[in-house]
């Protein structure tokens, strides 16, 4: 995978030994305000072995049209985002990023797996790389179910 600054990396390098909330994001979506909640989670749990990783994606009605640099600037200026952002990637279809190919096998709270439904779908990945939570886009980052799952899976 690639960070939004062009650096090739892995999830282990981005967040070694951390619980990761990977979220496909978009700057022009009805859920874009969720960046605030994601940053809140980062601030609240970042020092306890947790990080949010944003994965900008332009596959849902073209709601992430900017360059990687534009996206980073937008997130920083409008939401104070300081968690890592990946370069734009695809989460569904023929060009699906390999990480998302694996993630989509995880089930959500209703037992549904498969394609990412929309922007701001969230995957909680433990330190061993297992998906311990899949949260659909409509659920806000600060929802009690998300916070509870984070707290239950923080590294010791």
**CATH class, anyone?**
Alpha Beta
Helix content: 25-40%
Within the largest sheet, what's the order of strands?
2-1-3-4
Portion in strands: 5-15%
In total, the number of domains comes to 1
How would a crystallographer describe the biggest sheet?
4 strands, mixed
**What fold name goes in the CATH topology slot?**
Glutaredoxin
User: How would you classify the helix and strand content by structural class?
Assistant: alpha+beta
- Helix and strand pattern: HEHEHHEEH
Oligomerization category of the chains in this entry: single chain
Number of strands: 4
Q: What is the annotated CATH architecture?
A: 3-Layer(aba) Sandwich
Query: Helical stretch count?
Result: 5
Low-pLDDT stretches: none
User: What's the gyration radius in Å?
Assistant: 14 Å
**Fourth CATH level, the homologous superfamily:** Glutaredoxin
**Rough shape?**
globular
Mean pLDDT comes to 96
GO molecular function: peroxidase activity
Pfam family, one: GSHPx
Family: Belongs to the glutathione peroxidase family.
Protein name: Glutathione peroxidase
């Amino acid at each position: 995978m690639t960070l939004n600054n062009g650096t090739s990396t892995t999830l282990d390098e981005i967040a070694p030994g951390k619980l990761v909330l990977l979220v496909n994001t978009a700057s022009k979506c009805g859920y874009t305000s969720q960046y605030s909640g994601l940053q809140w989670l980062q601030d609240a749990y970042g020092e306890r072995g947790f990080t949010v990783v944003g994965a900008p994606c332009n596959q849902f009605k073209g709601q992430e049209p900017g360059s990687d640099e534009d996206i980073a600037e937008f997130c920083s200026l409008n939401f104070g985002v300081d968690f890592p952002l990946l370069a734009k990637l695809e989460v569904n279809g023929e060009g699906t990023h390999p990480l998302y190919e694996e993630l989509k096998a995880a089930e959500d709270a209703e037992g549904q797996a498969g394609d990412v439904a929309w922007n701001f779908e969230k995957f909680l990945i433990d330190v061993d790389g297992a998906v311990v939570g899949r949260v659909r886009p409509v659920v806000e980052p600060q929802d009690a179910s998300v916070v509870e799952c984070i707290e239950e899976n923080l590294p010791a």
